[in-house]
Amino acid sequence: MWSFVLLLVIFPAVSTAHGGGDHHQELITDLNQAREFLASYNESLSVLEYEATLAGWEFSTNISDHNEQKEVEANLVYAAFINEAGQNASRFDDTTFPDDVRRRLSKIRDIGTAALDSAKVEELNELINSMTDNYSTGTVCRPENASVCLQLEPGLTRVMANSRDWNELVWAWEGFRDRVGVPNKPLYARYIELSNEAARLNGYPDTGAYWRSYYEVEDLVGQAYKLYNDILPLYKQLHAYVRGIMHKTHGDKVDIKGRIPSNLLGDMWGRFWGNIYKQVLPYPDTPDIDVTDTMVAKGFTPLRMFQLADDFFASCGLKRVNQKFWNYSMLEKPSDGREVVCHPSAWDMGNEQDVRIKMCTEVNMEYFQIVHHEMGHIQYYLQYADLPTSFRDGANRAFHEAVGEVITLSVATPTHLSHPDVGLLNDTMGEVDSQETDINFLLKTSLNTIGTLPFSLALEQWRWDAFAGTVEQGKWNERWWQLKHDLVGVKAPVDRTEEDFEPGAMFHILVDYSFLRYFIRTIIQFQFHKGLCDAAGHTGPLHRCDIYKSTAAGDKLAHMLKLGSSKPWPDAMEAITGQRSMSADAINDYFAPLMTWLEETNRKNGETIGWDSGGVVYSMSLTLLLACMLVATYAV
Ligand SMILES: *[C@@H]1O[C@H](CO)[C@@H](O)[C@H](O)[C@H]1NC(C)=O
Ligand SMILES: *[C@@H]1O[C@H](CO)[C@@H](O)[C@H](O)[C@H]1NC(C)=O
Ligand SMILES: *[C@@H]1O[C@H](CO)[C@@H](O)[C@H](O)[C@H]1NC(C)=O
Ligand SMILES: *[C@@H]1O[C@H](CO)[C@@H](O)[C@H](O)[C@H]1NC(C)=O
Ligand SMILES: *[C@@H]1O[C@H](CO)[C@@H](O)[C@H](O)[C@H]1NC(C)=O
Ligand SMILES: *[C@@H]1O[C@H](CO)[C@@H](O)[C@H](O)[C@H]1NC(C)=O
Ligand SMILES: *[C@@H]1O[C@H](CO)[C@@H](O)[C@H](O)[C@H]1NC(C)=O
Ligand SMILES: [Zn+2]
C-alpha cells in the first residue's frame, strides 16, 4: 500500500532497549563504534526508505493489485531492516555518549510495527490497504437514479459543502457511512489487535499510550483537556451562533437548545466548518473575503495556486520547491481512469532531493488554504533535509501540522488577498479595512480552527479508549456518539446503532494516523503566529498580521524548522515564541474581538449557550517515555 503504511511500519515505539536485547552479550560502550553504526544506518536507510516510499507513492497515485503487491513487498524489506537496526542499536550502553548520539540511538530503537513478525506486518499492511480502498473507491448512488453514483471526492464532498437540502445531506452522510464505515468494521477490529500487539512488543500497554509518548510531556491528556476547557467558552459561543442559523434554515431538525446535527457542518464528518461560511456570514454587504468566485473568474488553476504558495514562502526568504517537485507531484485528480487516494498529503521520499504533494486540487479558497498547509510540510522537509535521517521529522507531530497553517493565517487576511501580487480582493465593493470585514474574517477563520478543536479531541479520545479496551467492541459506536454529544455538542442526523461504524468512514482512523496532532497544532499555530508577527514588527490586532515579505519572520521560522526532531519540542517552541509550553492565550487573544461580537449577537438573538452535557469522564494513567518517530508522509 502507500506511504501511510510505510509510516506504520516505522512507527517506532520505545524500545527493545528496555525489554529486548541479548542478555549474554556485552553492551558496547565505545563511542566510535556507535558513530560508525549511525553513519551506516543513515546511508542504508536513505536507500530503503526511498524505495518503500516510492512504492507507496505508485500505489496511492494508481490503485491496483499489482501496485499494492509491490508496495507490501517493499515495506516488508523495510520493516526487516528497521527491526534489525533496532536490535543493533540496543547493543550499545549509551549512558556516557553525547546527547545527540543518545537521541539518535533511541529513535532507532523505536521500531513500531516492525516489531511484529513479517506475516503480521504483511497482514496489517493489507488490512489498511483494504480499508483505504473501500474509503477511496466507495460510491453512493442517487435514490432517484441508481446509475448516478458519487465517490467521496469530488462528488460527495461537494454535496456536503454546498447543499442546503436536509434530505440530500442525510443521503450523502448516511450513504457514505453505510458504504465505507460498515464494511471496514471487521477489518478495523483486527487492526486494533495487531497494532496493540506491536505497541506491547515495544514496551507500551497499547497503541494509544504509544502515540501519546511522542509528545515527551507529562500528563499530555490532562494538558489537552485543559486547553479544551480554555477554548470552550469561545467554542460554545460559535456553536450557539451556528446552531441559531441552522435552526432558521432547517426548522425542527435543529433543536435550538441542543446539539447540532453533524451533516450540517460543511464536510462529511463535521470536522472543518469552513464551507458553511456563506450561510453564517455576519455582514454580507462587505467585500467577499471568500475569494472562490474571484479565483474562478480570474482563471486560477491548481498549478497557479501552488505557485502562489511557493512565492509566499520565497518572499520570507524561505525555500522554494525544486523542479522535481513540479515534475513528480500529483496536483490534480487524474482523468485517465486511474483510481487514486485523493486525501491531500505531502511526501518526503526519504531522499532530500525528492519531495512531492498528492492531492485532487479544486479551484476554491478551501483548497487554496490546503495547498498552503501541504506546502508547509514540504518546507519543513526542505529545511531539515541536511539532518541525519533519524532527526528528519517535526519537533513533534503537531509542529509539522502547524507550519502551513501559520502561513495560511497570513495568506487569508483581507490585506494579503488584496495585495497586488495576489489580486484576489479589492475595495471596489467597499472598505477592506473595516471592522465589519474584521468580524467576517475572524468568523471565517474560527470555523476551521475553533470549530474543529473539540472534534479533534473527541476523535482521539475514542481511539485511546478503543486501543486501551476501556470500551468494548460491542459499544464502539455508542462511545463515539457519547463523546460527540458531550465534547463537541453535535449529534447524528438519523438514528444510529452498533450495526453502524462511524470511525470506519474517517480517513485518519483507517490509515493508522494519530490525530491529537491536529488538536495541538490548532492551539500552537497561534503561538507561532504571534512569535512571527512580533519578529515582523507587526503592530495592531494580531488577526491583521501578514508576514508576507518579512525575512525576519522567515528567518525565525527557518531556525525552528532546521532543528527537525533533534531537540525536544520545547526548544523548538522557544526558538519561535520564547515560551516552552502550549498555551491557549494566543488563540484566545487572536479571537478576542470575535468573542465580544458573538456574545453580543447571541445575547441579542436570545440564544442559549451550550448544550445539555452529561459531563465527560476520563481517566488514564500514562507511561511517558522518551520516544519520537521518523515520518515520511504528512496529510491534511
Ligand atoms: C498504473 O499501474 C499499472 C500497473 O498496475 C501500470 O500498468 C500502469 O501503467 C500505471 N498507470 C500509470 C498512469 O502510471
Ligand atoms: C546489525 O549488525 C550486524 C552485525 O554487526 C550487521 O551484520 C548488520 O548489517 C546490522 N544491521 C543493521 C540493519 O544495522
Ligand atoms: C440517470 O442518469 C443517467 C446518467 O446521468 C441518465 O443518462 C439517465 O437519463 C438518468 N435516468 C433518469 C430516469 O433520470
Ligand atoms: C472492503 O471491506 C471488506 C470487508 O468488509 C473487504 O473484504 C474488501 O476487500 C474491502 N474492499 C476493498 C475494495 O478493498
Ligand atoms: C522535469 O521535466 C522536464 C520536462 O519533462 C525535464 O526536461 C527535466 O529534466 C525534469 N527535471 C527533473 C529534475 O526531473
Ligand atoms: C545521511 O545519508 C545521506 C544520504 O546518503 C547523506 O546525504 C547525508 O549526508 C547523511 N547524513 C549524515 C549525518 O550522515
Ligand atoms: C476589482 O474587482 C472588480 C470586481 O471583481 C473587478 O472588476 C476589477 O477589475 C478589480 N480591480 C482590480 C484593480 O483588480
Ligand atoms: Zn498535514
From TrEMBL:
Q: Name one GO molecular function term.
A: metal ion binding
Alphabetical keyword list: Carboxypeptidase, Disulfide bond, Glycoprotein, Hydrolase, Metal-binding, Metalloprotease, Protease, Signal, Zinc
How are cofactors bound according to the entry's free-text note?
Answer: Binds 1 zinc ion per subunit.
Q: Which residues form the active site?
A: E374, H508
Identify the enzyme class.
hydrolase
Please give an example of a GO cellular component term from this record.
Answer: plasma membrane
A Gene Ontology annotation in the biological process aspect, one of them, is: proteolysis
Q: Where does chloride bind?
A: Y215, R517
Residues of this chain annotated as glycosylated in UniProt: N42, N62, N327
Hey, what's the signal peptide range on this chain?
Answer: 1-17
So where does Zn(2+) 1 get bound?
A: H373, H377, E401
Q: Which cofactor does it need?
A: Zn(2+)
For this chain, the annotated S-S bridges are C141-C149, C342-C360, C533-C545
Residues reported in the UniProt entry to bind Zn(2+) 2? H373, H377, E401
Q: Which CDD domains match?
A: M2_ACE (cd06461)
Recorded superkingdom: Eukaryota
As recorded in UniProt, its EC number(s) are 3.4.-.-
Q: One Pfam annotation, family name? A: Peptidase_M2
Similarity section? Belongs to the peptidase M2 family.
Protein's name according to its UniProt entry: Angiotensin-converting enzyme
Q: Which organism is it from?
A: Patiria miniata (Bat star)
